[in-house]
Automatic annotation (TrEMBL):
SMART domains: SPEC. This is Actinin, alpha 4. GO terms for molecular function: actin binding. Keywords: Actin-binding, Coiled coil, Repeat. Gene3D superfamilies: 1.20.58.60. The keyword Repeat applies. The keyword Coiled coil applies. Pfam families: Spectrin (PF00435). It comes from the Eukaryota. Residues 36-70 form a coiled coil.
């Protein structure tokens, strides 16, 4: 059971490696509207992957709990590692939500700018013809 815990924890830690940095990356600040739409699709795919991974985190926590109930000799290290995984999981969830909000806000701003450019072009055309 302890080996199963270590294996699942290692797989999870490998999966999460680099995810926080990716979620904190502010690549959307210099993106165009089409880039933002692509980033949103990519983020939605990540959210699906994150949701699918929820079950694995729950399994890790369940195994850690079972090891505690069995008075496993190294339960302190298991608990520490499990707590780290759970804390990281919570951080990934909040970072995912923050990035989604930032992407949506940027998309709305760029759509507004695009709309204003279009409106300006429509108003400027008659003026240019008059000139």
């Amino acid at each position: 059971l302890a080996e199963k815990f270590r294996q699942k924890a290692s797989i999870h830690e490998a999966w999460t490696d680099g995810k926080e940095a990716m979620l904190k990356h502010r690549d959307y600040e210099t993106a165009t509207l089409s880039d933002i739409k692509a980033l949103i699709r990519k983020h939605e795919a990540f959210e699906s992957d994150l949701a699918a991974h929820q079950d694995r985190v729950e399994q890790i926590a369940a195994i850690a709990q079972e090891l505690n109930e069995l008075d496993y000799y190294d339960s302190h290290n298991v608990n520490t590692r499990c707590q780290k995984i759970c804390d990281q999981w919570d951080a990934l969830g909040s970072l995912t939500q923050s990035r989604r909000e930032a992407l949506e806000k940027t998309e709305k701003q760029l759509e507004t700018i695009d709309q204003l450019h279009l409106e300006y072009a429509k108003r400027a055309a008659p003026f240019n013809n008059w000139m």
